[in-house]
Amino acid sequence: MFAEFDLVYHNQFRNAFPTAEKLHYAKKLWFNNLKHLSAESIIQATHQAIRESDFLPTVHGILKHCSALDSLGLPDVRSAYVEACNAPKPRRSHQWSHPAVYFAGQQTDWFLIESGSEYKVFPIFKGHYDRLCERVRQGEELVVEPPLALPETINRPLNSEQRRAALDKLKQDTEL
Known about the structure:
Layout: H1 2-8, H2 10-16, H3 20-34, H4 39-52, H5 59-71, H6 77-86, H7 99-108, H8 110-115, H9 118-137, H10 160-174
Helix pairs in contact: 1-2, 4-5, 6-7, 6-9, 7-9
């Protein structure tokens, strides 16, 4: 987080933390105030703050971004990945913590999630999930449509006699 702040807000960062000692104390202060949050949540909030502000964020600002993420019901990316890996079939009827998890799994490809190594699959899932989370933050509502029910009756193909009878009835009905 501090490395990204240094890159994005270079002059402000150097003015706020002019010495190694001040930077050390600042990191301790931030750690004590953010230690109850997951690393993924902090990073997502950091990226959100960077996108939305011209100024170096405060601890309070990062906490606000974290609570905004929590209020949307979005789990952190690691929890979302684990949920997608463990989801039973049929996946559409599973009670997802958030629809973004389902759609990230779908876009990643369920077979790849089931058969691929986490080393390869997690970055792909994370990319899809991050894009979906951004869409949710922008106000888009994601909905997982329930699976289609089986039809009341199942039509079976007609044999040749039945086809002939149906054709004759159709001719009578249409007066041909």
